[in-house]
Every structure is written in structure tokens, then in C-alpha cells.
Records
---
Amino acid sequence: MSPTRTAAIFLRQIYLIKGSVARFLPLFVWVTVDMTLWGFMSRYLNRVASPGYNFVPALLGAVLLWDFFIRVMQGVTMAFFEDVWSRNFLNIFATPLSITEYIGGLVLSSIATSSVGLLVMLLLSTTVFGLSFFTYGVLLVPFLLVLFLFGIALGILGISVVMRYGPAAEWFVWPIPALVSPFAGVFYPLSTLPPWMRALSYLLPPSYVFESIRTILAGGSVPMEGLLWALGLAVADVLLACAVFTWTYRYAVRAGLIARYSAESV
């Protein structure tokens, strides 16, 4: 694996974002809208609900973490789609670039773009709405790590689907966070779900993160074995997604499907 080639994939994305307002603004505009909407909603609920419960860390904190997960996933998929939309994907793999180097470049791109969104959300939520992350303590770091790894896994899995079924399958990728959110228990405890949904929730790393947040806000202690299990699941998901991408790419090359990236209209 060549760090130079990996950095080149990342640098290309930076140049694309730097040279286009349409690519730069979405890095922080949508998270700003989300933070503003849920911030004022949390303030309203604090006024009308019984005193003693603060909805800001419960709702706004959950929205921030979930938006961070979405930005991580979309950081991977958008970097891939840039190559698809520009009909450049086939050209990239005509070079000595390896699959590992390409995925590494996508992950670096995701880290950069999601960091911008996270920084904007942190500044807005703390300065405008008074969200204090000292409430979560040092556990905020493993929370973000679990969501980051799971976002990378779903991003890689999403581009595998597009690679297998062609550029027209792009619409399969965008609804993924919305489909996952009911099972992740972002805004409600998993106990409210029916048994079959709860069984699936225990296989999703984010569900442990949001259950832990609610436990902290209720004054309880977070079971560390649950967080370790979530971290293990997230790492396993990343490895599985990379294996699926590798298999899909090799299948696309053998079957000639990869040629559609220079011929099929998006």
C-alpha cells in the first residue's frame, strides 16, 4: 500500500471541494439547519415539559451524533460518486492503484468532510443552545469512534451496491441512514420497539451509543461491556464491508460490469 497514492485520492477530493461552492457549502449548511431546528425544538420542549428534565442534551446531542454518522457515511459515498459522475472511475483503476489505496483515500476524504460538519455542529450547539459535552464525559470519544467506524462501513457497503448494479443504483444509498435510524433508537429507548426490531437493533453499533447516552442523562452508569461490544461490532462491520467491496470489484472486472462506468448515463 502506497501512502502517496492514498493521499492522491484524498487530495483530488480536496481540490474538487476547494474549487466549487456547490461542493463546499453542503459540508456545513445542512448540519447548521438541523442543529438550529432541533435546538429550538429542545428549548420549546424544556418550556412546556415538567421541570427538571433537560431536552437539549437528550435531543440535540442525539441529533449531533447521528448527523456526524451521516456525514461520515456520505463522505465516503460522495467521494466515490464524484468519480462516477465524472466518468473517472474506470480511469482510476487503469492505473496501478490498489483497492486498499482507493478505499484509504475515500476514508481520508470522509474524515476531512465529517470533521468540518462536526466542528460546525459543536460550535453552534454549545454557543447558541448551551449543549455541554461534559455531561457525557470522556465517553464522548468512544461514542464518536463507534459512529465513525459504522459510518465508514455503511459508506463502503453503499458504494459496493452501486458498483454491482451500476450508477443508476445510486438511489439505493441515500435512504440507508433513514432505514437504520428506527432500529438505532436515536430518539427513544430500544424497549419501545417490538421484539423483532429489538433483536436487529442489538446488531447495530449505534444502538448501544444512544442507549448509553440515555443512561448517562438518567444518572446511571454506562455498562462498558456494551460499549466494547459496539466497538467490536463496528470493527467487524468495517472488515465485512471491505471484503464485500473487494469481492464486488473483482466480480465487476471479471464480468465486464466495470465498463458501464464509462458508457452508462448516470
---
Amino acid sequence: MELESGATGAAGATSRREPADLAVEEPLEIRLDDTLVATTMRTPGHDFELAVGWCHAEGLLADHPVESVRYCATGGAVETAFNVVTVSTGGRAPTPSPRLGSTSTSCGLCGSTEIDSLLDRIGPLPAPPVFDPAVLGAAPAALRAAQPLFERTGAVHAAGAFDEAGRVVVAREDIGRHNAVDKVVGRLRLDDALPAHQLGLVVSGRASFEIVQKAWAAGFGTVVAVSAPSSLAVEVARRANMTLVGFARGSSLRVYAGEGLL
């Protein structure tokens, strides 16, 4: 893509002609043991992690290990343009029910799953570690340093898992913020590092209900967001026994849930 060069608008603004990197957005079909369970719009990259993380957050894997993850289902990887991923448990996971419709990059839940059933499925978390407020405030900046795609496009979100010292141990980017979280969770699941009780989750942008729900399912006891959470995200965080921090910007942050910091 190129931008118009040398034009001057009514307000005196000018533009330049220069190449621009654009964030790619393509559909991804997620299959569990060859059953189609979801279609999500995502930025290609770390697709196996995304598929595993999504299945984990939905409770589809239960306690069964992932035996393999591969591109393709009804055809080869090239035939399906690397846009179909199959997660296999060797048929051990319960037979999944497909999600109706597709998942957008801005909302993964889309009303297809009842909130109460999610709350019933995931029990309260054990008491999370109490992070130093300075670590929580610095978490977005630490994540920002691990966002090369954002540097090139300015159009993607990010999520990262960080330890008590503030070190980001896994960071992923995607045009959809919930996809970025799924990629982080998927990586941890494949590394047998869940539940992530001793880690925190930091996300660019706001903390929606779904971000908190995915963090809860993965066992994160602390979630940090650059912007504000939604009211439902705060309610769910409190019911989950989770620390939820918003507007984390250096020495300033706002605590919405979490007895250790309130």
C-alpha cells in the first residue's frame, strides 16, 4: 500500500508517499479431533498455539494432553492456505460442540456461550502471588518491547506472561486481543506450564470479560491492562479471586480487584 504524496487538505495537512506494512487478517478454522469447533479471524503466526489456547479456554481439552497439532483437515496445508489447524487428543477429549458462526478479531465470545456456565466450569483460583506494584506498573512497557509487529504496522494487540521479577517469558501479537491471549496460553499449555498461578498476564488495550475468562481458565491470578476493564471483567475477576489492574502506566495504576493490593 502507498499513501498519497504531496496533497494538501483544507486544514493545511499534507501526506507523503511511502510504503506501509499492513497487519494481515485471515480466517482460521480450528478443529479438535477432526471436528470443526470454531472459525476465528486472526493474524497468521503461532497458529498452533492459538488453536490449543482457544480449545483450553473453552474447556474442550479437559485434562487430556495434546498429542499433536497440524495444519489441514480435509486437504493438505497448501490446499487450505494454512488456514485450518487440527488439535488432536487421540479422540480422548469429549466430543466437542461446534461454536455457531465465526469469531471476529474484536470479540471471541459473541454470546454463543452462557456466562454462568463458564463461571460454573472454572473454580476460584488459589491466592495469587502479590506482585510488587512497580512490577505491575512496568508490565505494559516490558510487553511493548516485545511487539515487533506493532512497530511495523501499528495495528495489532499483544499479550504476555510475566514473572514476579517483571520478566516477560512469553509474548504474542495478533490483530485480535483475545487471539494474542490464546497464543500465550497455548504456548504455556504445550510447554506443560499450566496452570500459570505464579505468572501474571499483561494485555495491550482494555481488559474485557473474555480476557479475564481466558486468564482464569489458564490459572493466571493477576491480569494487567493498559486501559480500563469492563464492569463484567471486574465482577468475574472478583469471583475468580484474581487481581485485576488497569491503567498501568509506569508509576501509576488502578486496582479493580485483588485483596492483596486494594
---
Amino acid sequence: MTADLAATAVARVSRRLIPFLFLLYILNFLDRVNVGFAALEMNKDLGFGPAVYGFGAGVFFLGYCLFEVPSNLVLYRVGARRWIARIMVSWGLAASAMILVHTAWSFYVLRFTLGVAEAGFFPGIIFYLTYWYPARERARAYAWFLAAIPISGVIGGPVSGALLGLDGVLGMQGWQWLFLLEGIPSVIVGLLVLVWLPDRPRDARWLPAAERDWLEATLLAERVHHSAGHGVSLRKALGNPVVWSLGIIYFLLIVGLYGFALWLPQLIKATGEFTNLEVGVITTIPYAVAAVGMVLVGRRSDRTGERYLHLAFPAVVGAAGFIMVARIGSTGPLLAALTLTAFGVLAWLGPFWALPTAFLKEQAAAGGIALINSVGAVGGFVGPYLLGAVKQRTGSFTWGLLTLAGFLVAAVVIVLWLRRAGSVMRTEPAEPA
């Protein structure tokens, strides 16, 4: 009976929350990486070389990194509903303001500002879901939520390519229309957060009393267990070597993810065979495959209770993909290699975020998750900048792509070391529904 109640409660929560959070993250990721599509025309219009673009694309993450931990601690105090709404409205306005870019410095400042505005959103959602899912159910929940990353590519690619075609309408460039029309929805949906998201199960009127009570009791029991045993306080979380190890792993993996995401349109365009609209359509292929892969890897990780190998395997695939992209010249095999890379740089996300939330609770979770994400955010600067700088110096993507592969291999080495050391608790497999 308890198993049926648990399955029903988790399923109801998933139906109510995950589609909406999925939409929020699509908007978030799209506003973060649409500069990759804008660059197809913006760089030429404003005279930006690969190094300028790479630095501007990556400097977003420095602003993001600086304000991550403070933002997530505020979320813990004021509640997810109000703070996530504030973040969305702020980043929507900042994303739309990208139409004002006219020099390299204005590009850097506006991207940095967008990073500050977005700070706290992603770790805030990861933390928010700990109030709704028992630990054994989280990899799947995170995988469904994080599948918004590749789906934003599936949706955003064709839309961005089409918006570039508005060049000259009302005296604005196509890339300006792209920033404006992709920023406004975040403001509108941010206001809907105030209506749709309850802070905790006890605030959810749409949950039957029995399911609400079961969720509250189960999650409270987990918090008590960790507080009495191996739970970690906020102060200890911020100085915990395991938290920092996970931060370093996340940094290495994020170098690959954003090096890929922010340069993908230009990697395809560099073949010289496609229009901007065709580039947008073609980018849907790698992202669609990655979305399916993310969900399957997250589901299997929860079923087995194993996190490390489900994290390491995609990273190895991603490294192989980068090497193949660097070595392949013809278009068909290149698209296959990009698809393999997309799976590799994304499918590890669900199992990864199930690790820190297994031993960090409450305020420690808010601070620890934000710290890990902050360290990783530096990788979001390094990846795009590194690829741009190497392209500027050598005239080719080859050595930059091989370097990104090296970052993923380094992450795998640390993951396997943590697995052997047993530094993070193993989550029990989910009960069969």
C-alpha cells in the first residue's frame, strides 16, 4: 500500500511540476546560448573575431559564478516561488537588452550582466526539487528537467535561424530581433511562477492529503537521518572536500558542455554548405538524440542506484565525439560525430546532480549546490573562450576540440577515483512502481 501511495505521489508531483520547470529551463538555456546563433551575423556586422566572441560568450559565467551562492541562500530564506520569479524577470530583461551591443566592451558588459541576472536559477531548481522528491527518485527527475537543455536546442535552433531572417525589419538587424523576441517570454513566464509553483508539498492544494502527508513525512525522515548521521551543515558543506571534488568534476564537464553548445552553430556553418536557417534546423538532430539519452541514463541510474559509472560513461563518449569532430572533414560523418558529442556532454547531468543532493540537506544543500555550480560556471567561461582563442591563433577548431576532449577525460579520472574511495553515499535503487 505504501509503495502504491509513493508511486502515485511522485507521479502526481512529476506531472504538475516537471513540465513547467522544463519550460523555465528551456527559456533559461535558450537566452544563455542564443548568442551562438546571433554570432552567425553579429560577428560580421560588428567586426568581432573568434577571440572576442569566445570571451564575450564565456564572460556570462563569471557574473553567474560571483552571485550563485548568495542568490541560492536568499532563495532558501524567501522561498523558491518568489525568488525564481525575480530571477526570470531579471534575466529576460537583460537578455532583451543584448540588442544594444555595438562594441566588444558593450558585448562583454551585457553578457556579464545577463550572468548576474541568471545567478541562482539552476541551483535553485535543483535545490527546490529536493523538497519534492525522495533521494532515490531524483536522477530521473533531474534528467527530465535537464532534458530541457537539448530540447531548447531542438526548439531554439530553427526559431533562431528564422529570426535571423528578420534582418532589416523596422531598421533592426536579425540578431537584434533574435535577442529581443527570445528574451520577452522569460519575463512573461517569470510572472506565472508566482501563480504556479508552491514552495513545498504542504502548500500544494492539488496534492491529496494522504500523498502530501507521505511526501512531507518521507522527506522529513531523510533530513532527520542525515542530520543525525552523515548530513553536512552549511559551514561544513562549503569546506567539504567532497563538495569541492564534485565542483572540480563539474567544472571539467561544463568546459566541454558550453564549449560545444556556444560554438555548435559555427561548427556547422564552417562547413560552408548551409544557410542560417538550415544551420538552425540541423542543430536539432544532436540535441534531440541527447534529450533521449539523458532520460534513459537518468532512469537507469535510479533503477540501479549507481551514479558514478552513469556519469563517467557519457563523458567518455563525449571525449570520443570531440576527437571525431576534430578529425572528420565530410559533412555527414561530422553531423554524426556532433550528435555523439551532444549525448556525451549532456547525458551525465542527471546522475551527477543526484550525488550532492544525497548528502546535503536544507541550507547546506542550498549553499553546497550553489558552490558546486559556481565552480562549474567557471568552466562555462573557459570552454567557449578556449575554443575561440585557439581558433583565432590557429585558424582551425582542431586543437581546441582535442583540448575539450582532454577536460572530459580528466573528469572521468576524478569520478572513478571518487567511486573507488566511496566518498559519496550510494543511493538505494527506487522501489518498483
---
Amino acid sequence: MHLDVLDLRNFYYRTQLGRVAQRAVRNQVTKLWPEAKGQTVVGFGFAVPLLRPYLAAARRVVALMPGQQGVMPWPAGMENVSVLCEETHWPLSTGMVDKLVMMHGLETSDHAAAVLDEAFRVLGPGGRALFIVPNRSGLWARRDGTPFGFGRPYSLAQLEAQLKRHSFTPERSLAALYAPPSHQRFWLRTADVLESSGRRFGPWLAGGVLMVEASKQVYAPTRGSLKAAVRRPLRVLEGVGQGTPEPALIRARAG
């Protein structure tokens, strides 16, 4: 079940905890993808808090929002790039996307397999996709007061296995949201310190969200159909059409 776009907007843009979460996740996104000059960048679900760094240099930025969630105009004060769409039928041409960010779009969908198939379709050969989901071992998945407390949380192994089943190649993984999902002033003030500590001691701490970067690899066929067809050629016509050697012809006439 998708969350309502108004609830998502209010959390990320009107609460201090939401702004902390937005900053922590976006910092990890820009760490993976520092730029997207001349590229097409697409977000699906509610990924708009992460797309702003690419507005200036990207060739095109599109924010897809599923109908079950609803849509809002974005970015504020600029030309709108938000599009309402069916979650399993995106209004994008096949192979046109260079970078795809999915947040609050996979774990809340009742058709996750179809969503991944659509993501693979629109991604160009060699394109990159970043999937951001709640970590089943983290604190954020256990609190209903944030958007990461809804839907199906994942482990890293579960997410990577699901991506592989839909032809994606996982490349890198990160985590974010090491601070607890609390509105208390102490935790909000120390959130940046906790984020940096969590990235340093990641193997021993569970971040609130998992982030897996995956690529779309398209391989050329290794064996042509013609070669396979003549791998064991028939020899029933061998010798047909070959000329008779001249010496043998002379001997036959002499006899």
C-alpha cells in the first residue's frame, strides 16, 4: 500500500526529522552519483528529495509518482517535472534513462515484480539504478511515525536477490539513517555525528535504510545462429560436381 503524497511531503519538508532523513539519504546518493551532466535522471515513488542536486546539469529530470500515492508539483518555484503514472506502465520510452532513483516505490507496491520489470525496461544499456528501501534490521522500519515504517522491509541479501531475478546486476551497496527515528531535540542535534559514525562502523551497526546501486548490462550473443546450424554439416553431396581428372579420362579412352 502506497503512502499518500501529502503525508510524504509533510514529513520531508515540514518536520525536522524529515529534513534530517532527507539530508542523510541525499548525501549518500551524491556520494555514489556526484554528477549527471547531460543525462536523463528519473525518480520513482517519492524520490524528489533526492533529485534536486541534478536539476542544474542533467539533460532531463523526471519525477514519476504512482497513482496510488498521488502527485504534487515539484520543484517549488520552478518548471514542474512531476508526472502522475501507473506504477507498472511508465510514460517513458524504452532505454531512455541514464540514472534511476527509486524511494518509497518498491517496498510499498503490491506489484513489485512488475515495477522492477518496468524499471529495467526504461533504463538504457549500462544505465544505473539506485533502490532505497527500509532495512529490516534497522530502527526506522519498526516505527510507524516515518515513511520507512510502512511496506515490506528488506535485508541486503533479499534486495540483491530480487534485483538479480529481474536481470539487474548489483554493483554497490550503502546504508543511511543511523540516527534513531526520534523527534527529540538531542537526537536531532546529534544526527550528523551519528551518520558519520555509522558510515565508519557500518558492518556493526544497522542503518535505517539500505541502498543498492544496480546496472543494466546487455550482452551480445556469443555464437551466431548460422554457426550453430552448420556445426555438424551433412556430407551426402560430397564429390558431386567435381571434374574427372584428365589422366584418368585418357586411360578410359585407351581401354
